[in-house]
User: What shape does this take?
Amino acid sequence: MQGVETCAECGVPIYITSEHLWHSSGFILQRRDPRHIIIFLESENLEELLKGVERILGIPIERIVVDARRRTAAAYMERVIPEGLKRAVREKKVEVKPVIEGMTSIGHVLGYGRFEVVDCRYQGDEEDFLLVRVENPYSVILGSADPVAAFEALVGEEMGMDHEQVGPSTFLVRGFRSPHPEEFRERLRMRRYEYGEGDFSYEKCPSCGGPAFLSLYRWDLERGIITHRESGRRMVFFAPSVLEAVFGELERELGEEIPKVVVEAQKRFTAGGFYRLKGEEPAADLKFQLALRGIGLLSEFEESEEGLRLFMPNAAVPLMVVGLAQGLFESRHETGSRAEWKTGERGELEVRVIPA
Ligand SMILES: [Zn+2]
Assistant: This one.
């Protein structure tokens, strides 16, 4: 991809390290607005977590997930797109297509796959549409809402969307004028994340000053794909507030057992052997693995045959952490278990895993 500068030493795009700070709290902060955090996660985990929830419930959840994703994207775009730009588009002083192209190109750096605006029409009537080709999206249900949400925020009209698979890993996403269903007009609750200074520290790249551990990953900017250099696993940057809002919507629509179902799905995925801890120093390894992904600070960790206990003063997506802890315990001790957890007002998380 042209115009994206990468560090000659570690190979990481300068955009990634200049816009994000791997903070001592184990969160990844947006430097422009440190109230916002982002996680850096295996895309297979995101996809399998949602599929796992669906398998356990035995009913499709795609409609709820897609809609919650569209609404969170629309709220985000509404906030970040300057009013002047919206006005210029609506007064037809600025073409909408290049604006959307500029926005989706950031996704190439974040691991979203390759986006191309195929066609678009904005005349301010019912015929308006947006057509985007997405190659190798990290997730079809989570990853196709952004361009449509950008269009919606720019033109100020409610849009519906659908997608069609046109190749092995190519999709056409279509946005069209459609009023949102009444039940989805309510604003989603987006969690605010609190954190303080912590003791997560790391070596820095001597050239760009970003975390040296990011050189474990390779950026293919042409295809919009980030992979681990050894395992080949694909990574993506994702807002934890969006994931938590999706879980919240599932709970609102399907009932209060949803948090337990999310934990169970993450446990099964983890216990299948996807993540492993170094045998010698599991606490230090888990602390590093969590903070590398921006999930938070592991400050206490005890584990034996009798069980596992961990405490984090701040944790993003706590339900994933509970399932992860339980899955790791089960695979390390080859036993079944049950998990108990408590979250605090400021985002603290305590997890206990008890063998069963
Ligand atoms: Zn560097």
About this structure: The domain at 256-355 is CATH 3.30.1380.20 (Muramoyl-pentapeptide Carboxypeptidase; domain 2). Residues 7, 9-10, 12, 205, 207-208, 210 surround zinc ion (CB under 6 Å).
